[in-house]
Amino acid sequence: NSYRIAVIAGDGIGTEVMPEGLRALQAASEAFGFELDTTEFDWSSANYYSRHGQMLPDDWFDTLRTFDAIFFGAVGWPDVVPDHVSLWGSLLQFRRHFDQYVNLRPVKLLAGVPSPLAGRAPGDIDFLVVRENTEGEYSSVGGIMFEGTERETVIQETVMTRTGVDRVLRYAFELAQSREAKHLTSATKSNGIAITMPYWDGRVAAMAADYPDVRVDKFHIDILTANFVMHPDWFDVVVASNLFGDILSDLGPACTGTIGVAPSANINPDRRFPSLFEPVHGSAPDIAGRGIANPVGQIWCGAMMLDHLGEHAAAAAVQDAFEAVLARGDSSVVTPDVGGSGTTQTLGQAIAAAIAAP
Ligand code: NAI
Ligand code: MG
Q: Which of these three, 224, 255, 286, is where a domain ends?
C-alpha cells in the first residue's frame, strides 16, 4: 500500500517536532512494508504569510483534496500575524472545507508523564473525547444591534441540524461499540439550554436504540468537567457539541500531564476529503529554536493517522514505542517537560528505534 501525505509543519516548534513525527512514520513504513509519499508545504506565518500576506495560496483546496491525509504541526507567530488571522486563515479552513466533523482526542495517562491529579496511575485514565467540529455553538448566525448605545444587544445562535448531530453521534456510538468498555457518555446542559440541548439528548436516546450493547449515560457539562478531574476513571468515550467538546478536549489532556504529548485528529469519516492530524499544542514561541520541544504529541498524531489509513498494526507499534520510551524515562533521552535533559531529537530517535513489527 502507498499513501500520499501532505505535510504542513507550520511555525515555531511545529518545524522541530515534525521531523520526529516523520522519522517515526518512516520507521513504521519500513517495519510494516507500506509506502508513504510525503509532500511538504511551507504554509507558515513566519515564511508564507510574511511574503504573501495570507496563510494559504488561493488554490489550497484543489492542491490538498486528493491527498490521503494531512499531517500538521502548528501555526501561529504572533509577532508576524495576529493569532485569529493565522488560525482562521489556515487550520479552520481545513476543518470546514474538508468537512472534518469529528474532532477526536485521546486522553490517556502514560507511564513516565507526571499527572497533575494526585493518586492516579497509568491505566486509570484512558478515554476518548469526540467533539462535534462544524456547527453547534460556533455558528455565524447572529449580530449586534444598537451598537454603541445603552440598548446594545448582541445575539449569537446555536445551530444544530439533524444531519450534523446524528453523524457525530453515529461516529461516537460506533467508536464506543468497538471498545472493550462499550460505554458512551454524552455532555449536555438541557436544564439551562432548554431548546438545543434537549434536542441533542433526544438524538442520543434515539440512536441508543441502534446500539443496545453500548451503555449510555449523560452529565450536565458543569458537573462533567468536575468529574473529569475527580473521577477520570469513569469515562470511555465522551461525545459533546462543539463548545462543550472544545472545553473537554483541553481539560482531558490537561488531567494527564504535559500538553507536549497530547494528539488530536480532525476527521472526515465519510472519506470524501482528507482528514488532518495535529498535536494539541501550538508553536510555543517561548521555547522555539531550543530543540527541547516534546515530539510525542506529533508522533502520537502519526499513529492516529496510520490507524485512519487502515495500517492498524503499524499504528499500534508506534503507540507501543513511544509509551515504552516514556515509561523507561531515561533522563538523558526524554525532554525537560517530562523531567529529562534530552532534546526533541534524542526522544524522537529513541522512539523511532523502538518501532518494530511484532
Ligand atoms: P502553545 O501550546 O504553543 O504553548 C503553551 C505552553 O506549553 C508553552 O509554555 C509551551 O512552551 C508549552 N509547550 C507547548 N508544546 C510543547 C511541547 N511539545 N513540548 C514542551 N512544551 C510545550 O500555546 P500558546 O503559547 O498559547 O500559543 C502559541 C502560538 O501557537 C500562538 O500563535 C497560537 O495561536 C498558536 N497555536 C496554534 C495551535 C495550532 O496550530 N493548532 C494550537 C494552539 C496554539
Ligand atoms: Mg481549544
A: 255
